[in-house]
Design brief:
Blueprint: H1 12-26, E1 31-37, H2 41-46, E2 50-58, E3 62-70
Antiparallel strand pairs: 1-3, 2-3
InterPro entries: Acyl_CoA_acyltransferase, GNAT_dom
Keywords: Transferase
Pfam families: Acetyltransf_7
Length: about 70
């Protein structure tokens, strides 16, 4: 997911992330993961995600980290 810069900091990312996590839990899935832009790592960490490995580039977008969270049922 990505939120346009002018809408960042308004809670939209949290709404989308929470909805997605609840949806995935209903599918009996224990782990969620994403490729997070370097600038979004703190957002995901605040939502209890952890990084795996080193940063990697995605062409024309920038550095990303693989991040994951174990979902509680």
């Amino acid at each position: 997911m990505a939120i346009l810069k002018e809408y960042q900091g308004k809670g939209i990312g949290n709404i989308i992330l929470n909805y997605t996590e609840e949806f995935i839990k209903k599918k009996n899935t224990d782990i969620i993961w994403c490729n997070a832009r370097e600038i979004a790592v703190d957002f995901y960490k605040k939502n209890n995600y952890q990084t795996i490995g080193k940063a990697f580039p995605i062409k024309d977008i920038g550095l990303h980290y693989v991040m994951y969270k174990t979902l509680k049922k």
